[in-house]
Design brief:
The longest helix is centred in the N-terminal third of the chain and has 28 residues, at 2-29. The chain contains eleven helices and no strands. It is globular. It is an all-alpha fold and 193 residues long. It has helices at 2-29, 34-44, 49-62, 67-79, 83-96, 101-113, 117-130, 136-147, 151-164, 171-183, 187-192.
Length: 193
């Protein structure tokens, strides 16, 4: 239980540290290579969100048409409780690429936690029209619901997403479902997941 979570956290930190070293080397080699700035921002997102935001802002200045950077900036805005800013960034991303699964998934997740279920259903329909097995749209919604202590909705969304995957979802999906069930006080369901 707790020992495994701590070990996983150490492994993630080690991987992020190693990734950061690689991105720093790439930036030193070419200070105009935008993907290195976005990669560095992602590597720092959990440990140092303000610095991650600075790097992402620089990446966006280098290439304002980069959808991945727009979506990452929207994720940072959501993490900071700035949903309106996140929506604006996602709209920009969707103007650039109306079929961006990442942008559509995060937009659907925002609709889900803001109880805009008609909008959520419409966005999910768009996502599934593009990629019929893209359960990520539900995982994002479930993740946002869990972060807002709405574990019942988190578990429901995750189960929907897992149903789209051949074989019922990956290990991360099962672990997230177990955490959602645990948050609901359903220890036995969590053990089954």
């Amino acid at each position: 239980g707790r020992r495994r979570r701590r070990a996983a956290a150490r492994q993630d930190k080690h991987q992020n540290d190693e990734a950061m070293k690689s991105f720093q080397a790439a930036i030193e080699a070419d200070a105009e290579w935008q993907p290195a700035f976005l990669g560095a921002a992602r590597a720092l997102a959990d440990q140092n969100p303000p610095q991650a935001a600075q790097l992402a802002t620089k990446a966006l200045a280098m290439n304002p048409q980069d959808v991945a950077t727009q979506v990452f900036m929207a994720e940072l805005a959501v993490d900071n409780g700035k949903r309106d800013d996140a929506r604006k960034m996602l709209q920009k991303a969707l103007e650039i690429n109306p079929q961006s699964l990442e942008a559509l998934s995060l937009l659907a997740g925002l609709d889900y936690v803001e109880d805009k279920l008609t909008d959520f259903d419409a966005t999910v329909a768009k996502v599934l029209a593009i990629a019929p097995t893209h359960g990520e749209v539900y995982r994002v919604a479930g993740n946002l619901a869990a972060h807002n202590y709405r574990f019942e909705e988190a578990a429901k969304a995750l189960r929907e997403g897992m149903a789209l995957h051949q074989g019922g979802g990956g290990l991360e999906d099962w672990l997230f479902l177990a955490l959602a069930e645990h948050g609901l006080g359903r220890a036995e369901e969590a053990k089954k997941a």
